[in-house]
Specification:
Distance between the termini: 112 Å
Helix content: 40-55%
Strand content: 15-25%
Number of strands: 30
Mean pLDDT: 84
Structural class: alpha+beta
Radius of gyration: 43 Å
Low-confidence stretches: 1-5, 8-14, 338-343
Amino acid sequence: MSESHAISRKPWSVFRPNSFRAKFIIVVGGAVLFDLLVGGSVALWNVNRLSRDATYQIESGLTKASQEYLQNYIETTALRADLLFDQMHSEVTALAGSMQRLIDHPEAKEAIGNALATDSYFNAPLIHDPKGNWMQSPQGSPSVLSIWGYLLSPDGRPKPEILHKIQESAAFDIFGPSQMATGARKLQVYYVGPKAAPIMRTTPYSDQAQTFDKLYPGHNNANFWDFFFPGVYERWQGWIRDPNSRPVKGDDITATAPYIDAITGKLIVSFFHPLWTKDRKDVAGMVASDVTLDQLAEIVESVKVAETGFGFLTMSNGNVLAIKPEGEKTLGLKIASGAAGQGVTGLDRSLKKSTHSAVAALELPADDKTVIKHISIWEEDGEAEPHIVALRRLEAVNLWNSTGSITAENQMLGFVVPEREIYASLLAAQQSISSATNRILVSQIIAIIISLLIVFAAVFGISKRITAGLSALAAAAKRLQAQDYSVRVSIPTHDEVGEVGVAFNRMAEEISFHTENLEQIVDERTKELEDANQEISALNSKLRDENLRLGAELAVAKHIQMMVLPRASELEAIHGVEIAAYMRPADEVGGDYYDVLQEGSRVKIGIGDVTGHGLESGVLMLMVQSVARALQETGEDNPRQFLDRLNRAIYKNIERTNTDKHLSLAFLDFENGRVTLSGQHEEVLVVRANGEIERIDTANLGLPIGLERNILPFIATRDIPFNSGDVIVLHTDGVTEAEDPEGKLFGLIRLSNSARHYHRKSAEEIKTGIIEDLMAHIGTQKIHDDITLVIMRHK
């Protein structure tokens, strides 16, 4: 090794604070200083331990006592609130039970109605208001009875079926006032008839219809249920089909979110109890009670914790229902009222909109346990004030909201109190102990600093020789970093630092060797990458060829599927009716089925939907078409036998092909002006010549094809009147479940409105109009399912 490449030890002319020498001085000086600090450290530790132990004992005792107090207090208050809700539920349930008993015993209901009809007090004549186009009972009646305009005949009198519903519900005039006069304070109690006859009885008497005209424009032109409480009726019907769909198991009562009553201006909650038909297959109306939140507010506002602590009641979404004005200011809440539905104004005072970030970020409990949290709230003087927040969830209720859904809702009870008020004695003790500890700590630190200066002066003198070798290694490492691979170090000592110097020199030699051979290694790696790239290109070419082959096969399958569809000339040759059809697969091969088969004067129209779409679904669709054609040619004219034989053939084919596919399938048989419907599929729409829409549910007319071997016991038929100008619309779920770019479905209502709009046109024009409306709804959204539409119009 030449002297020009070697780095030897040099004396330090300048002491650098970040050098190893400085670190050596600190470490060694600290070790020597340790003995000097033992005495002072032991004394300081004892003082700190005594301070810590005393503070801990005081803090733990007061904290535990305070938390137990808050927990017991909030649980007792929550129990009072739950009991108030239980009382309200019991009273509404009692009223619903009385009305339900009469529904279940129609002879008793009729007898009571007939008896009340003879009493002038209970049977006051209804007064028609020509301007508002409604009828209402006069002042002095036990309840106000309102009959809306759409329930009246052209002569301004109630329709016959409405008169029957008025007499049936007359018993409310006995039960309602009694319920109003007992139990919890209530704003009003009322009865609403079923969706087909939503008459309304309310006690106590008020100018109900006049108020509705003033506050709810348009209410008399829409069904009561859809206008005021959209979705409630349909959710209750869903409970009948699936009792387990109730959000709160076993509870029929549905409550509204608190809202400002438009008549009284008070914050109220409505409790609805559905009434069921005698056979429990539909909703027969409801009884309800409107209750002000005054009683709940009294419970919450009576809370007093320490000097300024307070309580509040909130929904699970953070909307605060009851709170003192002082608490509202402390939590930084603001009230903003906004329309929560047609004619229903909700109260918006949300924790999430608090001006304090800690309150806005407050997480409400997800279970029934009491939760205690610590947050800081900024006061007006700019100081952060620590607060304790205790939260407790109340019992769950079924809650309707204006979006039409009913969900399980748990209201929350909360307590808020400043920590300084709860821990006042603790803070005083802590401050006294902390002052004494700080005085001892300062004297000990001064002694440590003086000792440190003495030790540092002694260690500094011997540090130079020990750290010289490390300095040489550091300089050599910098030259190696600058790509000077010829650098070497010379450390004469034979200790560990000298061994590091030898190892450094060997490392520098190996780096120099590998650097010189790096170019050859790069060439070898480049060659390997080129070979791998050629293999990938060959595999990609094979994959493209396979994709082309599969695409050709799918194109043939799609062509075959479209070939078996009925031609326009076949449809035009059918006498008595116009038929037009449209089918668009979502993939190359679809799973929808439709066909029009004619044998003599008999015309059979089939429509179905195979589960999924693609090649397997398309093959099953072709099987169904073939079997249906064969059965029609054999002269099978019994709709039940036709569907049963087709199912047996398809079931065996599915069993043989070992697939899990099946399909919904329905047939319309038309002969001599008569239409017979059989099989289970989507709802059938019938648009009468006058524009009236009928929806026919096929759920009870059969079972899905291919699920069971024998479905004959489940197959039923239904005759449909089909006169001149009437239109029948058949469709698959690809029509009603088509989504727009925002994810909204086209739905049966839009389909019905579109069919009604075009129903006076030809079948081809009706089909074209509906498809144009559907595609306008879909827009740029991807079509996810096959779309099939069949229009049949009586000439």
